[in-house]
Design goal:
353 residues; alpha+beta; Rieske Iron-sulfur Protein; 2 domains; five-stranded antiparallel sheet; transport; transmembrane; oxidoreductase
Length: 353
């Protein structure tokens, strides 16, 4: 059999010639260490004017970070929490949230950008090779690490470039104040007595929540359920949802002889009783009314209240009765509130007495 029939037989073996006396040629290491490329100096390394420009850029970024932190604190203190602002293309959002997010983001971005620019343009970029060593260090290695640290600290130029040092220390000193201000604001954010008050007050006219028209006693029939809110509230108001979540009421007309609770009868007008629509379990809106039993039902967890007996709980997880709103009839023949709710509306909270 000739080599022409099997040409591969004439090629050198890729694994080396294993015949006796044959010499296997040495192969190049495919993973040889190529070494480090030659160091190329940056323009800041050879031109002090360029280094000064980089120093001023870093100082400028640190200064902007400081100013943004101060603006964050001022915005937190000065801007009312209920103020809104229009931001294209997002729309109308909270002015406080927008300003705090913007100023804190600028402060953190400039702080990081200054550090990166400092490291990329002014700190030494020479790569050093350090051989691996056992985990347990010897005194020689410890002394070498300390010497390397001192050398690295000297190469940063922190002691020589006073402008960077001062602005960096200022930025690092001010940036934690953002967190301290937020923590200190917890006392200001406490609800205080706000959970006890609603938009109702003496003389406030009751208007139909669907038609937005003032309610008269003849508008409410026996056995019907009507939802109302204070006159003056508008859906386009920025705090409408917060206000209606506490001020929503339901009106039911009962026969006076069916009302078992004396206080409930005294606080009614022509048999019309007004109760908070907010369930005292987790705050769901009550929407169901049973005419025969005078019970109202929360659809979320089936808490049931008896409107003929002070809206006490007769079933379900609710913890206490629905607060009643004292109502009367004004000179125009409209239903009006004679004050606010006597008890806080909605679920219980830790400050509730």
């Amino acid at each position: 059999m000739s080599s022409q029939e099997h040409p591969e037989a004439a090629l050198p073996s890729e694994r080396g010639d294993t015949r006796e006396g044959a010499v296997t040629p040495a192969r190049a290491d495919p993973f040889a260490d190529p070494g480090l490329p030659p160091h190329e100096p940056r323009v800041q390394d050879i031109d002090e004017r360029a280094a000064k420009r980089s120093e001023r850029v870093v100082a400028f970024l640190f200064t902007v970070s400081m100013l943004a932190t101060v603006a964050f604190i001022v915005a937190y203190v000065a801007i009312p929490v209920d103020r809104s602002v229009y931001v294209f293309p997002i729309g109308r959002i909270s002015a406080t949230n927008f300003t705090l997010g913007l100023t804190l983001g600028v402060a953190l971005f400039c702080l990081g950008a200054a550090a990166i620019h400092w490291a990329r343009t002014l700190m030494s970029d020479v790569e050093l090779i350090d051989e691996r060593h056992p985990v347990e260090t010897s005194p020689e290695i410890r002394s070498k690490v300390l010497a390397d640290f001192k050398e690295g600290a000297a190469e940063t130029g922190l002691g020589r470039r006073t402008l960077i040092r001062k602005t960096m220390l200022g930025a690092l000193t001010l940036i934690p104040l953002s967190g301290l201000v937020l923590l200190g604001g917890l006392s200001k954010a406490a609800p205080g007595t706000r959970l006890r008050r609603t938009a109702w007050a003496g003389g406030k006219t009751l208007i139909n929540q669907n038609t937005l028209q003032p309610l008269r006693p003849e508008d409410i029939e026996v056995g019907s359920l009507t939802f109302a809110m204070p006159k003056g509230m508008k859906e386009e108001d920025h705090d409408f949802q917060n206000q209606i979540a506490k001020a929503a009421v339901m009106l039911v007309r009962l026969r006076p002889e069916d009302i078992k609770d004396k206080k409930e009868l005294d606080w009614s007008a022509d048999g019309i009783v007004a109760y908070s629509r907010i369930c005292t379990h987790v705050g769901c809106p009550i929407t169901l009314y049973e005419q025969q039993t005078h019970h109202v039902l929360c659809p979320c967890h089936q808490s049931t209240f008896d409107l003929s007996d002070g809206a006490r709980v007769v079933f379900g997880p609710a913890g206490h009765a629905l607060p009643q709103l004292r109502i009367g009839i004004n000179k125009d023949g409209h239903l009006e509130a004679l004050g606010d709710f006597a008890a806080p509306v909605g679920p219980s909270f830790w400050e509730r007495g």
